[in-house]
Amino acid sequence: MKKSLAILLALCLMLGSAACGGSPSPDDGSSNSAQKQEITFWMLPLIDESSLRAMVDEFNAQSETTKVNLTVLDWGTGREQIKQAVASGSGPDAFYVSAGLDTAYIDGSLLLPLDKNGYRGEDLDRYSTLIEAAMVDGSLYASPIVYENYILYYRTDVLEQFGFNAPPKTWDELKTMAKTISDGSKGSIMGFQFKGADDQLNAINLTWQSLLSQNGCDIMDLASMKSTEDTPKAREVLSFMKSFYDEGISVMGTSSNNGFREGKVAMYMFTPGPLTSEGFIGDQQMEGKWALAPLPQGSAKGGGYLSGHAVAVNSGTKHAENAVEFVKWFTSPENAPNWLQKFYGVQPFDLDKLSPEQKGGIEGVFAASPEIWGPITESAAMTTPDLMIQNRYGYTARWDGQKRLIIAALTGEMTVEEALKQLDVEINQAL
Amino acid sequence: MLQMTKTRKKDAIEAYAMLLPAAILLILFMLWPMINSVYYGLFKWNLVGDKVFVGLDNFRFMFLQDKSFQRALFNTVGYTVLNMLLTLTLSLGCALLFEKTNKLSVAGRCIAFIPVVVPITVMGMVWKMIYEPQFGIINQAVSALGGQGPQWLYDSNIALVAVVIFNVWKEFGLYTIIFIGGLHKIPKELYESASIDGSGPWRTFWTITLPMLRPIMYFATTILLINSFKAFDHIWVMTGGGPGNATTTLVTYIYSKVFDNVGLASAASFVLFAIVLLITLIKAHVGKDGEVDA
To answer: Based on C-alpha coordinates, what's the Rg of chain A?
Structure first.
């Protein structure tokens, strides 16, 4: 009897520890200073923390009414921390959200509609069409900072070595060139790597959706609210990806970023992130040996993956006016050059609707590095907010499922059909 | 007589009063979350919106539709069996090797125990680098010998084995020390008698050492079983449950679902609890005589 009790107790301890979850410490941001209203702002490190702090300090210096207290969270857990804190009523006044929004925020009425709280018609008009991704039923729920799209990185030296003087323009060309390089180098250089098949982290989500977009696929049927990852066109995409591994063109696990830097990976597709995070720009050993290009085209000539970073205001804030004042400033066209100088992304405005000064500031950044900004803006011009909007529904389940099941298909753990079917099963369960 | 009853009553009250703080903590942080997890298992809830009562749908989904859960279940059992087998074999072997009190044995024990004291997540990161297919030292060594190493954590067929190898390396030192303690408790006279009767080392091991280690073995296997079933941190650090679902265990499954559907994660927690409870009860019944002085 005693023994059974002891065992039961040990198991209670185990299950209890599994059931307990952490939560961020509450912070209502309501402490008042003598002159200004203090608000809290939780942000993810879209650019380095010191630059974020510098921007917030600049706002604090110029605002007569508001003082912002910034907390920078990490990418790994920050989104969930924010979501849980906001949902529990202890979240910050303003916070980072994905520019495509997360339906959990909308369903829980956790975001303040900005168009009814300080954003006027002319503020909304100056955005590009991608702003739709931050809107629900005509209301704006987040103010975008910058979008991220996909581009092709290629080693000019390796391509030249194998007789290619231009990057691939289509998927067929991409595969042919990659195979030539992988086979010709006897595997010492990988012709192409799918980002995310290397570290098997979130990047596979971006790569997968990029290829889906290029092949004209949708991931949600918004009428029936069912996930549509398993379609004949999506199977084509996954089979195309798998063929690289089956035919020995690519090898799982080899790092795209490291391999590219060392000339061991000739081409890969990814966001512009590595330009700064991996230090490709300014790397003297790589100088003159690489370039960027718009994505090789699939059957639908879509622009590829698009996501975005935005800031929203907590619907439960007691200081909506102050929070909106800050968010508007933080994401303003005047600040856009600040972001673009540190983050090679897609700016959210329709340049023709900005003032000459605002437009000039952004175009000045583009003019400084046309070889970088050319491919980014060319790819961006083909993107639509469709997948970003569809991504809202079942977002967490989709990203977790895609990360596991696309890789499972690539490694042969599951067939293409099984993986995509299971993906829909998991996402639909969460919807 | 009345005085004696009063004293016993007072002792009992004192004893319960002393147990109370621990009991409150246990109820608040263990028992209550456990009961909650069973309750939440009947709901669909993403932590943000309203909870929707779905009855046994979460359980039905896991067992009948969710191939990822089924794979997690399979992996958990595979991980547990392999981990227990390798850890017990290696630690018992090392215990026999290092049970003497000479300097070499003491040094051996220290070396075996070092991995136990290093944080598992730190070592998980280090081993992730060791396993790296291109630049990791294992494949570099294989490559230097003219061979080609496997993809380790990126190969669905061997990733689970690679994770188990790491865990065995990390934990075997602890069990080695436990077994050495057990070996030291075996009366030397038994070995002397066996030796006089002409018993060789192999026969002595099977007929004296192993049976006499039964209480310790019972303790070690119980702890190892529970630790194997709840393995999480190193798996999450090294593979995140991948590639695909290749190293997804019940606990990594629970973790990955908790942000999306607390109900599903809670239901999976209950399944884990039920499995471990069942196995431990069976084990307790079968190994009834084993717990004597463990």
So the answer is: 23
B206's CB contacts (< 8 A; 6+ apart) are: none
Distances (CA, A) of B235 to A248, A401, B249: 28, 18, 9
Query: Is residue A10 assigned to a domain?
Result: no
Predicted-complex ipTM score: 0.76
Question: Which three-class secondary structure state does DSSP give residue B228?
Answer: helix
Instruction: Assess whether A293 and A341 both reside in one domain.
Output: no
The answer to whether residues A113 and A237 belong to one domain is no
Domains and CATH numbers, chain B: 43-286 (1.10.3720.10)
| Pair A181, A101 in one domain | no
Nearest CA in chain A to B254: A18
d(CA A305, CA B52): 33
Pairing of strands A135-136, A94-98: unpaired
Task: Provide the token pair at B264.
Answer: 């599903």
Kindly determine whether residue B242 and residue A200, on different chains, have CB atoms separated by under 8 Å.
yes
pLDDT, mean of each 10-residue run, chain A (431 residues) = 50 45 40 73 91 92 92 88 88 92 85 90 88 90 93 95 93 94 90 84 87 90 92 94 93 85 93 88 90 88 84 92 93 91 90 90 90 90 86 86 91 92 92 83
- CATH number assigned to the domain comprising residue A209: 3.40.190.10
Count of Cβ atoms closer than 10 Å to residue B44 Cβ: 21
Torsion of CA B231, B235, B236, B240, to 10 degrees: -130
Instruction: Choose the mutation target among B25, B34, B272, B286 for the interface with A, i.e. most A CBs under 10 Å.
Output: B34
| Spatial distance between the Cα atoms of A330 and A334, rounded to a whole number of angstroms | 9
> Alpha carbon A4 to chain centroid distance?
51
Choose from A199, A250, A411 for mutation: most chain B CBs within 10 A. A411
Is A106 an interface residue toward B (CB < 8 Å)?
Answer: no
Q: What residue numbers bound the domain in which A324 lies?
A: 36-148+306-380
Distance, in Å, from the CA atom of B4 to the CA atom of A425, rounded to the nearest integer, reads 68
Q: Which residues of A touch B264 (CB under 8 A)?
A: 429
